[in-house]
Amino acid sequence: MMQNATAEPAAVVPVTPAAASAVPSRSGRHGGRWTPWLYLAPALVVLAGLLVYPVYQLGLISFLEYTQAQVSGGEPTSFQGFGNYATLFADDQFWQVLLATVLFAAACVVSTLAVGCALAVLLTRVRAVPRLALMLAALGAWATPAVTGSTVWMFLFDPDFGPVNKVFGLGDHSWTYGRYSAFALVLLEVVWCSFPFVMVTVYAGIKAVPGEVLEAAALDGASQWRIWRSVLAPMLRPILTVVTIQSVIWDFKVFTQIYVMTGGGGIAGQNLVLNVYAYQKAFASSQYSLGSAIGVVMLLILLAITLVYLRLLRRQGEEL
Q1: Which among 30, 121, 181, 286 is least buried, having the fewest CB atoms inside 10 angstroms?
Q2: Is the CB of residue 66 less than 8 Å from the CB of residue 217?
Q3: Whole-angstrom Cα distance, residue 290 to residue 278?
Q4: What are the beta bridge partners of residue 78?
Q5: pLDDT, tens digit, for every residue of 93-127?
Q6: What's the per-residue H, E or C state across 156-223?
Q7: What is the pLDDT of residues 56-73, one digit of tens each?
Q8: What is the DSSP letter of 287?
Q9: 8 A C-beta contact, residue 63 and residue 79
């Protein structure tokens, strides 16, 4: 008789989670932890050279007595500690310029976000040809250098040859003579060259939203404003966070538009912002240490605004 050749199946041993975690991974326990940093190392080295070292030099000069005499070698450089900051904070003009900078930057950020988001929603409502034309026009404004754009806007509102005054019958009205009209003119130019970034970014986010969600909101009778406020804005909050922080940084440190359109800060410095004020202290007055101190203050303000904004979003449970 032939014996049965069928082998009895081997018993299956269950693997517990503790036993599975004890099995070493293919890349090793510590190798996987450092792998992302190895990929980021080249970019971090470049960023350290482009950002960390200049910021270090900026902070170092702000603690020194560094004027034209020290630059030319006529006098030795001396350590001042917080003396430059004390001089800066005791200057009433600094606080006036700081307040004007904060208000101007806030107006620019709100206006840029409003125009960019409105046009992003409009792009989802128009056909392909108008959409393409609007995108090309916006990207053209975005790609225009700040000096060129400021010069064009100065021509448009020129009191003698500008078409704006002729169309509205304003005669030889000077937009840059008054403080608030000059700030408004610069604000328009800043929004014109900044809204395309917001528009393109928000439009890409809207296209990623499932169409069923928007159709359901429309079937429920929600208006376009209600759809944006209750549906799109919460879903696009991470994207809106990025564009808001970017806009705050860009608009808080506006320099070219103010310098070109107001002739270096306006009549008697009525249109100064911190960046132009720092330029005047550092290069026009050769007080490089005071200019560096203003730069450090701007850096700390931007860091504080960014951290506070991110903290508020964290409290609301948003993941960035």
Answers
A1: 30
A2: no
A3: 8
A4: 65
A5: 999 999 999 999 999 999 999 999 999 989 988 89
A6: HCCCCCCHHHHHHCCCCCCCCCCHHHHHHHHHHHHHHHHHHHHHHHHHHHHHHCCHHHHHHHHHCCCC
A7: 999 999 999 888 888 887
A8: B
A9: yes
Q: Which two tokens stand for residue 98?
A: 């700081």
- Work out the number of other CB atoms within 10 angstroms of the CB of residue 44: 11
Q: Which residues contact 180 (CB under 8 A, 6 or more apart)?
A: none
Q: How far apart are CA 261 and CA 279, in angstroms?
A: 16
Side chain identity, residue 133: A
| Structural tokens at position 7 | 């082998």
Whole-angstrom Cα distance, residue 140 to residue 222?
34
d(CA 261, CA 189): 10
Q: Which of 81, 88, 55, 100 is nearest to 303 (CA)?
A: 55
pTM (two decimals): 0.81
The amino acid that residue 311 corresponds to is R
Question: Identity (one letter) of the amino acid at 115?
Answer: V
Distance CA 110, CA 301 (A): 18
The backbone torsions φ and ψ at residue 67, rounded to the nearest 5 degrees and listed phi first, read -120, -170
